[in-house]
Write a structure and sequence with these properties.
elongated; 282 residues; single chain; mainly alpha; two-stranded parallel ribbon
Length: 282
């Protein structure tokens, strides 16, 4: 009677093949585990836009198509920007006149002043007047002698220790804010603080009560129709291949007529055109 042997005892190659197959499966499982962990961890430098602002901006087109006023936040007309002017239907020429008036030290306290400087139609006030929050008139020279100048804390000068004094800001969030500020080259609008990954809106609001961002009118903007891909790539929101695609399209199709045309590129939507408008002009 024959002595029974193990199944693979007479075939060394077959045994080796099974062994290497098991090792390969084990390695694949390990790689899948490591890969999934890396992609589930969001880096500190990821830019996330505030959900409330995204919903507001996405509603603009829909509201215009339906002929209705859309939900806009009230704002001080002394701090107009290109995007707000676009939403309110103010022409670029009118915005230029408003900007020039502000750069010269002018200060709007009434609709009549804004209308005269910008040569605006009455229909703008009829539709959006409730959103224009004019400040109190500035004190006269005699009054300013007895009024103490308020201390303005600049968000672009705040240290990690300064930020950690705000309730809800710890070592991690303070470091993220500083890293994001460095990537931006400095905040140009307080609304950019909402783009910091992991920073809750309530905490961001507390930061903006303690710190401010200086008037963006003095910030230098670059021309969308003249800037090189390298210059556009310096803007955080246009980094990578996106800047090259923008200049290639300009070369093939001619100058851009509005910043809104950038929505044709993947990665740029109406929700972040307002951010890009802080850095670009036509």
């Amino acid at each position: 009677m024959r002595r029974s042997k193990p199944h693979f005892s007479d075939n060394n190659r077959l045994r080796s093949g099974v062994f290497y197959l098991l090792m390969l499966l084990l390695c694949l499982q390990l790689l899948i585990y490591l890969f999934s962990r890396n992609f589930n961890t969001a880096p500190d430098s990821v830019v996330r836009l505030n959900a409330e602002e995204q919903a507001w901006i996405d509603s603009v087109k829909v509201s215009r198509q339906k002929g209705r006023d859309h939900s806009l936040y009230p704002f001080n007309p002394n701090y107009f920007n290109d995007y707000r002017g676009y939403v309110l239907g103010i022409s670029p020429n009118s915005l230029d006149r408003i900007y020039a008036y502000r750069r010269a030290g002018g200060w709007f306290t009434r609709w009549e002043e804004l209308q005269e400087v910008g040569q605006l139609a009455d229909s703008i006030f009829d539709s959006y007047g409730h959103l224009l929050q004019f400040p109190e008139p500035r004190p006269s020279s005699s009054d300013r002698q007895i009024v103490k100048k308020p201390i303005i804390r600049n968000l672009n000068h705040a240290s990690a220790e300064d930020l950690k004094k705000v309730n809800g800001i710890g070592p991690v969030l303070s470091r993220r804010i500083l890293n994001f500020r460095k990537a931006l080259g400095g905040f140009r609008s307080g609304s950019q603080l909402y783009d910091v990954y992991g920073l809750e809106e309530e905490v961001a609001n507390r930061v903006l009560k303690r710190f401010q961002v200086p008037d963006s009118l003095n910030h230098k903007k670059i021309s969308l129709n003249k800037a090189s891909a390298e210059e556009l790539g310096q803007i955080l929101y246009l980094r990578g291949e996106l800047s090259r695609k923008i200049t290639d399209y300009r070369t093939e199709n001619g100058p851009y007529k509005s910043l809104g045309e950038l929505e044709r590129f993947e990665g740029i939507t109406e929700k972040n055109i307002e951010r890009i408008a802080l850095y670009l002009t036509l």
